[in-house]
Amino acid sequence: MASINTNSSSMAALRTLTSTQKNLASVQSQLETGLRVNSAKDAPATFVIAQGMRADIGALNSVSEGIAFGQATIGMAMAAATEISNQLTSLKQLATQAKNEGLDGAVIQGQIDATLAQIDTITSTSAFNGVNLLTATAATLNVPTGLGATDQVSFTNVDLTSTTGLALNTVDATDTANLDTHIATIDAAITTVGAALTSIGTFSSRLDDQAEFTTLLTDTMKEGLGVLVDADMAEVAAELQAIQTKEQLNIQSLSIANAAPQSILALFR
């Protein structure tokens, strides 16, 4: 039946054109964002999984920042402990010199006192962002290593102050009768600092390994997220060309369908 009130062909062509333009908008969105899944309406389950992965990636970035802070803190402690070790080497040399005849013990004692004061200066200034690992009152350094509540490693402070930590408060170059005892005390302090350096170096190495692993884990999660939501731009470009062509054909088809009722006019001539 020919009707000028209801044009079924035109309505069908319009539905097809609307569907094509909807697809075109979706493809253009992928081109603009680079994402195949950009919202929950695109793929609800995938979008929810992707959001969870984005949250984990953000948390891992925070973990990396915490590890970097730990590396800087332990690095400061390592530099300070190394310098204290150097000071103890000088201290032993001074104490040994005091055994030589003809040297002024008081002068050597002044140098020893200055060296001990320098050790305490090093320990008191070896803090990074308020965290000092080389004093008796220092807090334990806790470094996050993962997303779990218990995923962390800890370094307990080591006291390297001259008196309480290294027991060097009795080094006396003028006490010639007991110089060997004083040198033995210095040797014990050298051993203490050596053990501290071993612990610090081991912890530092562990943080370096953890930092590398965390970076690898973050990159892997980003790759997985990309597989889930990233658009294949080559495929999108080809699809865009096809849809644009289809849109042009749909418009032409709608134009033809809209012109069909005009043929009825020929019946009245």
3D structure, described in words:
- The protein has five helices and two strands; from the N terminus they run H-H-H-E-E-H-H.
- The protein is mainly alpha-helical and 269 residues long.
- Strand 1 (141-144) and strand 2 (152-155) form a beta hairpin.
- The protein starts with 7 loop residues before the first helix and ends in a 10-residue tail after the last helix.
- The longest helix has 54 residues, at 44-97.
- The protein is rod-shaped, with a radius of gyration of 39 Å.
- The protein has a domain at 45-229: f41 fragment of flagellin, N-terminal domain (Up-down Bundle), CATH 1.20.1330.10.
- It has a two-stranded antiparallel ribbon with strand order 1-2.
- The model has no long low-confidence stretch (mean pLDDT 89).
- It has helices at residues 8-33, 44-97, 105-124, 179-229, 233-259; strands spanning 141-144, 152-155.
Q: State the strand order across the main sheet.
A: 1-2
Percent helix range: 55-70%
Biggest sheet layout: 2 strands, antiparallel
CATH topology of the domain at 45-229: f41 fragment of flagellin, N-terminal domain
According to CATH, the homologous superfamily of the domain at 45-229 is f41 fragment of flagellin, N-terminal domain
Beginning-to-end CA distance, first to last residue: 19 Å
